[in-house]
Amino acid sequence: MKMKELSLFRDLSEEEITRSMGCSRSVVQEYKKNEYIFCQEDVPRKLYFILKGNVLLGQVNAMGRQNYAEYLKEGQSFGEKDLFLEHSAYEYYALARTKTTILSVSSHFFYSTCAKNCAYHKKIIYNMMRIFANEADQMSKKLYLLTCGTLRQRVSYYLMQQSGGNPQVELTMKREELAAHLNTTRPSLSRELSYLQECGVLKIQGRGRIAILDFGRLQDEIDKVEE
């Protein structure tokens, strides 16, 4: 992804983007696969945008169990909540799942306009408001996912959402990560996937790949009312 395609730089010219990079002390950095971008309990200092690759946001509790997982892809941002709510430490970690290129922006850039009162600075702050609105929308969808009913309904809804109408679904998270994302355990998730396969709704084609065989019946599982 090119810099100008980021939501942060929407409606900015190439020149404005270049100037804003210096004004904001932005840095583009590459991370190797499985390298930490930041660790749980690090101090929030920057806002991050994914230019290339994939990032896992995860949380491990005191017992060593992963109880939160979010998978982010190219174009998405992270670190906003902890940065702007001025948390003393991150409540989760960020891990590069593939070779990943990240744009990091210093927090100071968003707290005031620069001495020159540049027009692009105002545009970027406005774009950040759009990003926050989009994040709120995504959180609303995630909340619906976690409260839409039984685990089977949550799994069905997630698969329907990920498919986008395409029968071939690539699961971007490992089974344990997906279980944490759906607020369940890995064995429970596996049981539900096996049930849907036995019913002819889907076919598990290997690690990370599922074929949806019957969208109608998958929707029926989502709409099913508990007895």
Automatic annotation (TrEMBL):
Pfam family, one: cNMP_binding
Protein name as annotated: Crp/Fnr family transcriptional regulator
Keywords: DNA-binding, Transcription, Transcription regulation
Record-linked InterPro entries: cNMP-bd_dom, cNMP-bd_dom_sf, Env_Response_Regulators, HTH_CRP, RmlC-like_jellyroll, WH_DNA-bd_sf
GO molecular function: DNA binding; DNA-binding transcription factor activity
Domain called HTH crp-type: residue spans: 149-216
CC per GO annotation: cytosol
Naturally occurring in which organism (per UniProt): Suipraeoptans intestinalis
Location of the Cyclic nucleotide-binding domain: 8-131
